[in-house]
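Researcher: Here's the sequence for the chain we discussed earlier.
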Amino acid sequence: MLLIHTALHAEARAIITHFKLKRQHDEHAFACFSEEDIFLVESGTGKTNAATAVGWLSAKVSAENPVWLNIGMAGHANHDVGTLILANHIEDQAKGHQWNPPLLKKANLMSSHLLTVDSPDFSYPENTMVDMEASGFFTAACRFTNPELVHSMKVISDNRQNPPIRMKPKAVEALFKPHLLAIKQLSEELLKLRHHTLLPHSEK
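Model: Thanks. This is the structure I predict for it:
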């Protein structure tokens, strides 16, 4: 079972198309899309919305140890706009809580620290991505699955040379399209790991 969280529909559009997900029109609490064992939920911005959406979808699907992926945009001091980065350390700025998601060696993705803020912050701390959802997502998702199966992937949307602007949905979607294969590959590796965690101890 693969469960994907995004904050915005524009961040989800390319993923929805790639995985051929269909809108669940009977759901109204959050926009939800699915196909077989893949579900995607859009929460809106902010860590509270992210945590609430994760809890809602977890209750809806009731899967044992699902894979959870948070996919969205983040700022960074100097990484190029459009760069895909996997969070190797997540920190909540307001509460000071920190987590270190265990990275898969086979993922072969660039990784970085990720700072979650409560309001837009364009100070661009060195060597750190900045978003508004990851800490809420991670805290909630780890309540429903093995922490090894919970990860956050970010596409850089702004940096010191390219300050944030109100991007049109098609421009946001274009940031994610080049990374669909990487998203799929990471998902597949995590699903293999999930399968291993579900095996009886004698078969591992």
